[in-house]
Design a protein that fits this description.
Blueprint (H helix, E strand, L loop, with lengths): L12 E3 L6 E12 L10 E12 L5 E5 L2 E4 L14 H13 L4 H18 L7 H10 L4 H12 L16 H30 L3 H12 L1
Antiparallel strand pairs: 1-2, 2-3, 3-4, 4-5
Helix pairs in contact: 1-2, 2-3, 2-4, 2-5, 3-4, 4-5
Bound molecules: zinc ion.
């Protein structure tokens, strides 16, 4: 499977913001037409810095001003935490691109993100319940456990048959993106930052700390 690729200015191919297919994009500059036909004056003038990319898969277009996509509107959801594993980032970005059309689909992908995140945190990654239980035993902060459980449970129809209909609930789905990033921030980014700071201490200071801990 080709990993998800977010739309990038003047790239030949990316996952289309309309149909989500990984598809070839045909780039054209946008011109304005003055509605008249005169042999001496051109009817068309270039609109500066405005480009259009046609998706060869669904024939819909995205519109780019300078190098930013202005149509269709970006979902406005934050980007994935950069410390997440690459395959988790791909799932997250794919969820981000479909959330307005399919909150259920986005939530399913985010649940997959959480399962893989447990794996990144050193768990087997086979059974999400067991993994979270194990992480709790290893001292997972209660808030983070709650965040993991929320993403795990929401959208899981076998847990809440008929209770929750996510078809139109973009807002709930949007909140889950935030939770995945909070979990990554607390469990991966913060410990990494503290470790780097500790390692940057002069050796005699570190020795002092380690000796105190032994005593
Ligand atoms: Zn398309």
């Amino acid at each position: 499977m080709i990993p998800f690729k977010a739309p990038v200015f003047e790239e030949e191919s990316f996952n289309c913001p309309h149909c989500n297919a990984y598809s070839h994009q045909t780039w054209e500059s946008v011109k304005s037409y003055n509605g008249q036909s005169h042999p001496q004056y051109p009817n068309y003038s270039d609109v500066s810095n405005l480009m259009i990319a046609w998706c060869t898969h669904c024939s819909q277009y995205s519109l780019w001003l300078n190098d930013k996509m202005i149509y269709p509107e970006e979902s406005g959801i934050q980007m994935p935490n950069p410390d997440l594993r690459d395959d988790i980032k791909d799932d997250y970005n794919e969820a981000r691109s479909i959330v307005n059309r399919s909150p259920r689909g986005a939530v399913a992908l985010l649940r997959l993100c959480v399962q893989k995140l447990c794996e990144q945190l050193g768990q087997p990654g086979k059974n999400i319940n067991d993994d979270i239980k194990k992480l709790v035993e290893e001292g997972l902060p209660p808030d983070i456990q709650r965040a993991l459980d929320i993403v795990r449970v929401i959208g899981n129809d076998t847990v809440h048959p008929g209770k929750m209909d996510l078809k139109d609930d973009v807002e709930t789905a949007n909140k889950l993106f935030e939770l995945v990033n909070i979990i990554a921030q607390v469990m991966i980014t913060q410990p990494k930052g503290i470790k780097q700071l500790y390692e940057s201490l002069p050796e005699h200071k570190r020795k002092g700390i380690e000796n105190r801990d032994k005593g």
